[in-house]
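Batch queue: ligand-bound targets. Current item pairs a single chain with flavin-adenine dinucleotide. No template structures supplied; prediction is de novo from sequence plus SMILES. Inputs echoed for audit trail.
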Amino acid sequence: MTILVIAEHNNAVLAAATLNTVAAAKAIGGDIHVLVAGSGCGAIGEAAAQIEGVAKVLVADDAAYANQLPENVAPLIAGLAKNYSHVLAAATTNGKNFLPRVAAQLDVDQISEIIAVESADTFKRPIYAGNAIATVQSSAAIKVITVRATGFDAVNATGGSAAVERISGTGDAGKSAFVGEELAKSDRPELTAAKIVVSGGRGMQNGENFKHLYSLADKLGAAVGASRAAVDAGFVPNDMQVGQTGKIVAPQLYIAVGISGAIQHLAGMKDSKVIVAINKDEEAPIFQVADYGLVGDLFEIVPELEKLV
Ligand SMILES: Cc1cc2nc3c(=O)[nH]c(=O)nc-3n(C[C@H](O)[C@H](O)[C@H](O)COP(=O)(O)OP(=O)(O)OC[C@H]3O[C@@H](n4cnc5c(N)ncnc54)[C@H](O)[C@@H]3O)c2cc1C
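Prediction returned. Tokens below.
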């Protein structure tokens, strides 16, 4: 049994989610190969070769893969997949973009966002916004799987010494072209990779008030997230949204400030190791999942907290 893991990267940095995906592959068992599809991505190949437990790295370095366009990347993966029992990618925007195409091209059903491995053909995945966990058994000849990174502890980024093989790509499918992207720039850690996340909700009242969370977060070395209500109200950009339709996070510490704890928000953060909730309503549902709850006005509590850090 040999498993192909698709590396998540931006041609410059190998994303941490790759390490969680390799962990899922390890739980399945068998040899693990990593595919790095990108442009000018030789360093990513070298980094992937260092990952603990990886036997081989395939590098497809082609301008067609520079921006992970699914129309170009999917045929490459589907072509390689025939040599593998499983194909795994992180359930990131990229993985969710190209892997369903791979599954369709292989004529198998995709198994989405697994959070645990029962055996080589049986996996656990959340359904109904995480309110139920389905155990799914697949009889597909090649199992095409996206992995929810928060479900698996990352393997070590170093310690491996895999062989790196350069392979030729399938090139530009000619169906789409990359036009441009606008990326939010921040000196704070990336939300899904941060060890501490401070999130604000509608209780923050406006975007200006988020400065209280930014200064607390900077002292803690934390990322800043938000509820959908805060995003929809225009307090903060939507790439900060945590939840069912936002980002899934599971940091060591999640501090929810002025967030009620709707199930759609909990779906994105309830696997955090320690949850602290600050809310003036002691009946707020967030307190049902919180390890520590502070009932009171966030505009008094957050500055007090900051003084103690
Ligand atoms: C299909 C679907 C998908 C969704 N996806 C998401 C998602 O991904 N993420 C998400 O977050 N939501 C999502 N939602 C929305 C979700 O249902 C809630 O509406 C939203 O999470 C509420 O955000 P909130 O907790 O900030 O606001 P509210 O529910 O309005 O809560 C605000 C809280 O702030 C407290 N508060 C107010 N003032 C203060 C103060 N001064 N001090 C302390 N506490 C104060 C209040 O007591 C209250 O509990 C989704 C909804 C749907 C239908």
